[in-house]
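Give me structure tokens for this 63-residue protein.
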Amino acid sequence: MFLPARTPRTIVDKLQSEVAKALATPSVRSKVAALGVDSLTMSPSKLDTFVRKQMAADAALAK
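Here you go.
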């Protein structure tokens, strides 16, 4: 899940917490999986690092 760049940190943290709680329930996990979505729960800073590394790898592959 992504938010606009300047979203206040309190909102980012609250949303991350609530999404993690939802994804911890079997019914939500099964519905998300049925949509073909792989759900990963990670902190906002880990997501930032993951996305930046993935973008660099994709850019290198494209070149």
